From TrEMBL:
InterPro entries: AAA+_ATPase (IPR003593), AAA_lid_3 (IPR041569), ATPase_AAA_core (IPR003959), ATPase_AAA_CS (IPR003960), MT-severing_AAA_ATPase (IPR050304), P-loop_NTPase (IPR027417), Spast_Vps4_C (IPR015415)
Organism: Solanum lycopersicum (Tomato)
Keywords from the UniProt entry: ATP-binding, Nucleotide-binding
Protein name: AAA+ ATPase domain-containing protein
Domain of life of the source: Eukaryota
GO cellular component, one term: spindle
Length: 322
């Protein structure tokens, strides 16, 4: 039996026996994913981030005996950078490649009134993660724990939730080294400057996920166009040159927009019924042209400002890991 199938086999027999079975059942349904289905190769570039994640998450899972004592894995890992740069994608890739259960929750869901009391939810989240180990808990927008605006009640809820989260992160270290059931916490933020010291200290590795450089943009465009027919004159290098400052998500939007343009032109001015009558095979045959790309680049503007990038670079130079 392959390693992946062995993990699945064990997981199918998992039984949660924690203190909140109903809450656990709902969490299991809503945020638990046993196979997020993203491969390393689906993530363009980010080689430095991949290297750090290999060392802090992947290898400790496969060689727990080596990562003991002074070599113990980091309690938590933070990925920070502008939105749409691949933080969630990378977390999914690590979980997929390691056969880990993936639990994806945004901090605002934990902070809000979602399913009632936040601390109970947090405790249950970690219990469930242990039951399904090896597990990766991915908490998006982790900064929102430290920057709550609004009523005194909201402040109090958030303060207590943060204390509970800190306790759980501290507990990860002990349970990982004694039970052999590894639970890894990966957090992400677009506002690292909002994290307070207590949380920052627990997120021992802090990985900067920058905007894609030229080579990464090329790779990202190629990944997006894997299954798409291109006209011979399409020059991916030129598209990559023209998209400096665009995030991975912006680039994906450009590829999507360009790839739909041929169909759009074909049905322009036609009613829905007339459009439906155009032969599918006719539309499928239309290749994406360079003009489609240039139009899309013109239409879709970069979403990240230079101020945002400077803010991240400054935080990286002060607190980032390499
Ligand atoms: P973040 O979590 O940093 O806000 P996501 O990981 O959700 O960003 O990325 C949003 C989308 O952008 C992805 O689903 C993917 O289509 C695209 N994308 C962003 N960065 C990359 C990358 N490095 N490689 C491939 N696709 C990417």
């Amino acid at each position: 039996m392959s390693f992946e199938n062995a993990v699945k086999d064990v997981k199918s027999k998992v039984k949660y026996d924690g203190s909140h079975p109903k809450l656990a059942a709902r969490l299991e349904k809503e945020i638990l994913d046993t196979n997020p289905g993203v491969k390393w190769d689906d993530v363009a570039g980010l080689s430095e981030a991949k290297r750090i994640l290999q060392e802090t998450v992947v290898l400790p899972l496969f060689m727990p005996e080596y990562f003991q004592g002074i070599r113990r894995p980091s309690r938590g890992v933070l990925m920070f950078g502008p939105p749409g740069t691949g933080k969630t994608l990378l977390a999914k890739a690590v979980a997929t490649e390691c056969g880990m259960t993936f639990m994806n929750i945004s901090c605002s869901s934990l902070c809000g009134n979602w399913y009632g009391e936040s601390e109970r939810l947090t405790r249950c989240l970690f219990e469930l993660a242990r039951a399904h180990a090896p597990t990766m808990i991915f908490i998006d927008e982790i900064d929102s724990l430290c920057s709550v605006r609004g009523s005194a009640t909201k402040h109090e809820t958030s303060r207590r939730l943060k204390s509970e989260l800190l306790v759980q992160i501290d507990g990860l270290n002990n349970s990982n080294s004694t039970s052999g059931k590894m639970v890894t916490l990966l957090a992400a933020t677009n506002f690292p400057g909002n994290l307070d010291e207590a949380l920052r200290r627990r997120l021992e590795k802090r990985i900067y996920i920058p905007l894609p450089d030229f080579e990464t943009r090329k790779e990202l465009i190629q990944i997006n166009l894997k299954l798409i027919e291109l006209a011979p004159e399409v020059d991916i290098e030129q598209v990559a040159q023209k998209t400096e400052g665009y995030s991975g998500d912006d680039l994906t939007n450009i590829c999507r927009d360009a790839s739909l343009n041929g169909m759009r032109q074909k049905i322009a001015g036609k009613t829905i019924d007339e459009s439906k009558n155009i032969l599918k095979s006719e539309i499928l045959k239309i290749p994406v042209t360079m003009e489609d790309f240039l139009e899309a680049v013109d239409k879709i503007k970069p979403t990240v400002s230079s101020g945002d990038i400077q803010r991240h670079q400054k935080w990286y130079s002060e607190f980032g890991s390499s």
